[in-house]
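Protein: Xylose regulator from LacI family
Species: Candidatus Rhodobacter oscarellae
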Amino acid sequence: MRDTKINLTIGYIDLSSGQGTINALRDVDPQRTDAVCLFAVDAPGVREEINRLVDQGVQVCTIVSDVSSSRRSSFIGFDNVAAGRTAGRMLDQMVRRSTGTVGVITGSNQIRDHIERYMGLTQSMALYRPGLRVLPAAEGHSRNHENQELVAQMIREHHDLVAVYSIAGGSIGVIDALQEAGVGKDIVAIVHELEPRVREALADGTINLALHQNTRSMMRLATEAMIAACEGRPGPEEKLVIEMYVAENLP
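Structure follows.
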């Protein structure tokens, strides 16, 4: 990528509903903005706001979670259905019992990447481990305290719980619930993103696997995609890969 001067503004969006994304898009001034990089909730009204900005000459790049029905210029992220399928395949390899219950924690059932990961998981489990029952995804809004209570509730209510897959953020809550119940070595746990507490939990065996998106690579590609779109060029062809970490290969 050639040298380009960029004036960058970073904003934080409430992802608990589509309104947070809509409000953020409405706050964009098309007279002062060439491109927007957005982690979006795919909810009613979001597509229309993206298209409105595009009509006003603003290029929109989505990251992590896509709004594919919009006229955004590019999406940077890994294949979330494949991520869910990968989690299911790893559960097939790690869960020893032939029957049991798999708990799933999601952030929001309106966020596309969470929906796609859950879909991939159920596809994989139906193929490889039909004897395991996958629970409906429980919404924890990527908050540690909500995820902790949801996992604790699963442990209380499902005595045959063999695994937990946390699709979204809030992994610390999952770790705390497993450790407080004393079942960290008995229940297979898969989470997303390699944050410091996840590293510790992988090392001590509370977490079995972390699926990771390299945010540095993601933002590099997103920046290249936005500059290319503004200049009328094709965006980068490089794709993000699903990184997998266990205790033995922590970087």
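Remarks: The chain has eight helices and ten strands.
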